[in-house]
Structure formats: C-alpha cells, structure tokens
Specification:
Layout (H helix, E strand, L loop, with lengths): L1 H19 L11 E11 L6 E8 L17 E8 L5 H5 L6 E3 L5 E5 H4 L4 H5 L13 E5 L3 H7 L8 H15 L7 H10 L4 E7 L29 E9 L2 E6 L1 H9 L9 E6 L7 E7 L5 E7 L2 E14 L12 H30 L7 H4 L6 H7 L1 H4 L4 E10 L11 H5 L1
Parallel strand pairs: 1-4, 1-5, 5-6, 6-7, 13-14
Antiparallel strand pairs: 1-2, 2-3, 7-8, 8-9, 10-11, 11-13, 12-13
Length: 417
C-alpha cells in the first residue's frame, strides 16, 4: 500500500514538472522592441497627446554583437494618441517587433504639458499598466519631449538605458537633481500635504547667464566648451497636486535635500566665501551623516518648527593660506562664517517656498505628524494651508573633518622670495 502511494506522488510530481516546462508563449529577445523612454507632449487637439518612443537595440554593445555592429543603438518614433498605453498598438504599424515596457526607465514630459491641469489624468495611465514600474524616473524638459529625445546624443555611452541610469544616479547622489520617482509622484499627489520635485533637464543652451554660484543653475544654463553632449540634468520641476507650478535650481535642490530626512544624500563638493579674504572662495566637501531633528509646537493655531541640520564638512582648499590645521581660532571663525552662510541660504529657501509655492518640497509633513494625537487631527490642521504662515527656524550644526592632506602651507613671501 505504501509503495502505491509513493508511486502516485512520483506521478503527480512528474505531471506538475512537465506542466511548468511549456514554452508555447515564450518570446525571444530579438522579437521584442524594448522601450527605454517615453516622451509626452501636449497636442493642439483636446484629449490627445503626442507620444514619442525611444526604443533600444539590445544587440548593440552586447557581447554577442562583438562590438562591431553597424546598427543604430536606438530608434525614435512619434505619434498622436489618446494615451501612451493604447499607443503601443499604433506604433506597431511601423515597428515590426512587439513593443515592450519591461525595460522602461524614464518618462520624459515637456514643461508645457506638465503645467496643464489635465496632466494628472495623462500620467495616471502609468499606474494602470503593469509593465510600467513605479521606480520609473519622471523627467521634465524645457523643450518638447520629442526634441529632447532627438537632440540627446551621448558620446561615451551609446546604450540609451545605461546613459540615463548613470546620469540620473550620479545626479541624485550629488543632490543636483531630486531623489524621486514615479511612485513618489503618486504618493505626494494623493496625500496632498507636500510638494513634489521632478528631475529637470534640457538640451537647449542659454547664453549670457550671470554666474552667481557654481550650482545656481537650471538645466541648459551651464556653459561648457569642447565637444560633448548638450543634454544637461540640473534642478527640479515643482509640482503641486499633480501639476507643475514652478522650478528650482540645482543649488536650491541641494538645499531642499539637506532639509529632507527621506533623502539619502551622498557627499557633494561646493564653495563658501573665504572669511579671511573676500577675493576667494573655499572649496569644501559636505556630507549629511546624521538625520535632521525637528521640534514642532503650536501657538494660537500657528505652527512653530525648529529644524536642526547636522553636516560634516571637509575643507579642500585654503586660498588665503591661513593653515587651519594649526590655528584653532581661525577654525572657529571659519565655522561661524560657514554656519551663518548655510543658515541664511536654508532660511531664504524656506521663505521662498512659503511665499511662491505655498508648500514645502522637503516632506516636512512627515516629522510634524508626530505632534498630533490622531491622523484626523493632522488632517484637520491642513498642513498645506498652514505651511505658508508657519514660523520655521533653522540651526546648522557643522562638524569639521580633515583640512586637506597638506598640514602646513608655506608663507606667501616664502614662495615669492
């Protein structure tokens, strides 16, 4: 009897195994057209949008191709459709392979479309297609999305999926673009408590931009020489309730990241005014190794928030030749100057968001919820309406690291003599 039961079990296992090995519905790699980016533009006809597909050629740059393929690494096709979900079937009238969103990494939207009240209806199509991942990046362009895709011509990385991956990842690490994705857009739009920052990019260069700071630029404003790609990723597009209402520079994006505990920011390099010689600026590496602390209270219905921002700073240059490593008094003076500068910049940015955008871009609603007994009490407080009148105080706590590898600098007269 026991042998009979074992035989039945073995037979069932064999049947199940064979049922799982079917390949009737498989699709070979060379039978699919993998869309890396989708461009969305406004159309003159109501209810219509212009969809641009950036389709990658998986054989170019692969080991199988041997690096000697003469095929193009990408194909671009634009069409007018009701949405970018049903447009796939229309695109297959000119693309022979099955269009797939499996490798979709960026959705590129023109600023014109992003500023329309109906944009939220367009982008929510991404939540209905199971192939579109919530980690897909949302990029807003100054020009049309079609023009951005056509003008983007990276010289060192011909594979489009790798180019966007490298550019966006490094931009997020340095704080020049926001650390957000499509999932963050939906979350912020639905909670209606904070503002959302999307990546801002452009292939169009602006001339004669006044240089205020190394980071105080929008995409398209940084001046480069030589021979390189014209595409720039810098700054952020600001969204309120699913519609773009403004934009901020790369420097302001960094400031927003310093105020945001949800942002894992890597170290970045910047410059500060030299307190010992106004002709120079001091280079420094700034990192936020610890989380911000927040103190929230109410007074007569008005929110009062104290934010403490701990930063770690390494000094990389000493243009006035003070030799900080051997002079504690100069270090204290430098710390006082840098603290004042950072607090002024953070306070100015917060004030700007209160007056211009009427909302915060650094998820301030997350820590202040702890100051309410219930979620309903927080909702009744209506953070979006309360934020513009809130009193927000910022304190920066600087901790110095190294002062460069050279511990002793020569006197200027010693060099010249």
């Amino acid at each position: 009897m026991g042998q009979f039961k074992n035989l039945i079990k073995i037979s069932m296992m064999i049947i199940i195994t064979f049922s799982l090995t079917g390949c009737w519905d498989k699709t070979e790699l060379d039978q699919k057209a993998y869309v890396i980016g989708i461009g969305l533009d406004a159309h003159e006809k109501e209810g219509k949008i212009k969809v641009t597909y950036l389709v990658a050629n998986p054989e170019v740059g692969s080991q199988q191709s041997g690096g000697g393929s003469t095929e193009s690494p990408e194909e671009v096709i634009s069409l007018v459709a009701d949405d970018f979900i049903s447009s796939r079937n229309t695109a297959n009238t000119v693309i022979s392979k099955e269009i797939s969103y499996d490798l979709l990494s960026v959705i590129i939207v023109s600023e014109e479309l992003a500023r329309k009240p109906d944009f939220i209806r367009v982008i929510y199509s991404a939540a209905k297609d199971r192939e579109i991942k919530r980690t897909t990046e949302l990029v807003i362009t100054k020009e049309s999305a079609e023009k951005f895709i056509l003008n983007n011509n990276p010289l060192l990385e011909t594979r489009p999926h790798k180019y966007f991956e490298f550019m966006i990842r490094r931009g997020k690490e340095t704080g020049m673009i926001p650390n957000t994705d499509l999932n963050g857009f939906f979350q912020v739009a639905e909670t209606d408590a904070d503002l959302f920052l999307a990546i801002y990019a452009s292939t169009e260069k602006e001339r004669d931009k006044e240089i205020i700071s190394d980071d105080d630029f929008m995409a398209g404003e940084v001046q480069f020489g030589g021979k390189t790609n014209d595409t720039q990723f810098m700054g952020s597009a600001v969204f309120k309730e699913g519609m773009m209402i403004g934009k901020i520079t790369g420097e302001e994006t960094r400031i927003s990241s310093l105020l945001d505990n949800t942002w894992e920011l890597e170290d970045f390099k910047t410059t500060f005014k030299d307190p010992f010689d106004e002709r120079y600026r001091i280079s420094a590496r700034v990192a936020k190794q610890r989380k911000n602390s927040y103190d929230f209270k109410q007074r007569n219905g008005k929110a009062i928030i104290d934010i403490r921002v701990p930063v770690y700073v390494e000094i990389l240059s000493d243009p006035s030749m003070v030799n900080f490593a051997k002079n504690n008094d100069k270090v204290a003076e430098l710390k006082k100057s840098m603290t004042k500068t950072m607090e002024e910049h953070l306070t100015k940015y917060i004030k700007n968001t209160q007056e211009e955008f009427k909302g915060d871009t650094f998820h301030l609603s997350v820590p202040i919820r702890k100051g309410f007994w219930t979620l309903q009490e927080f909702r009744d407080f209506d953070w979006m309406k309360s934020y513009p009148d809130a009193e927000i105080n910022v304190n920066v706590d600087i901790r110095f690291g190294e002062f460069g590898r050279q511990t002793k600098l020569p006197e200027l007269r010693e060099v010249r003599d």
